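RECORD TYPE: protein structure
NAME: Asparagine--tRNA ligase
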Amino acid sequence: MKTTIREVSKFVDQEVKIGAWLANKRSSGKIAFLQLRDGTGFIQGVVVKSDVAEEVFTLAKTITQESSMYVTAVVQKDERSPLGYELLVKDIELISDSTDYPITPKEHGTEFLMDNRHLWLRSRKQHAVMKIRNEIIRATYEFFNKEGFVKIDPPILTGSAPEGTTELFHTKYFEEDAYLSQSGQLYMEAAAMALGKVFSFGPTFRAEKSKTRKHLIEFWMIEPEMAFYTQDDSLKVQEEYVSFLVQSVLENCKIELKTLDRDTSTLEKIQAPFPRISYDDAIKLLHEKGFDDIEWGDDFGAPHETAIADAYDKPVFILNYPTGIKPFYMQPHPDRDDVVLCADLIAPEGYGEIIGGSERIHDSELMKKRMEEHNLPLSAYEWYLDLTKYGSVPHSGFGLGLERTVAWISGVDHIRETIPFPRLLNRLYP
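PREDICTED:
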């Protein structure tokens, strides 16, 4: 019976055939232990000299790392295995041998591993991170489909900057200037006016010259927009969504979390509702913690976000930032003209902001005024202004950064390990 490592539990005490690669091996006299992987998982294959043909045992002793093969074996329960099973090998058919595989079981430097990212993905920990990433993507679609959202795909090539910044990748669109999108939000607002509750999931680009462990040049965003939703309504969706993601990973990625030595006790606490703190109170909290450099009106850096998050054991919303440090489209606070109705969701354990969101301006004159204050060319945003002219309603939305969320849930130190082929300030290879 041909199967995969993931499916071996269905064939206990039965003979199966699995296509696999050799991740590692060791031998002890008359027994060879093969660490096998097939993309669905990892399993140990035990080759006993007395149980196989002589050429099979010789092959088991000499086969090299990352060689590919078909393994015929009997599935056996093994409580010591993370998978709970192992293979008693009966036959090995070599498909392709691998010579001088560059990533050996010894320690390698980060730059070397990044240069060989196309091969590093095969390792246990990188495999585990990618499986967790996949589960978060799967759970995202499940959550929003269940909640009645419609998936909409905004354009990647745009004629203007959604947030009016200059950190854009410029290109030529025939005779016009164009930019790689840094957010699909404005287009999603248009979609929300047509379809009510929508979400996008796609790549975004920031030409930000940052080298921190929390930044990528190309990354993926989930951006929901909701008509007739206040900021408070949106916060409830956000905390339910993040809770759903965490619980889905806990349920469906047990082996991967164990492979990464993730402390799951911290993740098990992630259940809605989440604590909330105003920007004003966050400033006071930071002063109490000795951050005398921060003043009202300043944006928070990584050390500030970490200090705020450390006061809680769940992600925390920081509410109502000063108007001057937020984009033009955010709805003013009804009782104050110096702050807007927005929130950043800060993950625990030093992982920083994973969501930014707000209630959006729906008054045409106010939107036009804000655009002028931000020196935005009204001609480029005429279509966006139309949304406030023709049946505008209160609406809210947010954006979740996929890679930062993967980093937090999987517990990896650097965001570059959370995307298959990271694009960094000085890295466009492989």
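COMMENT: The chain has a mean pLDDT of 96.
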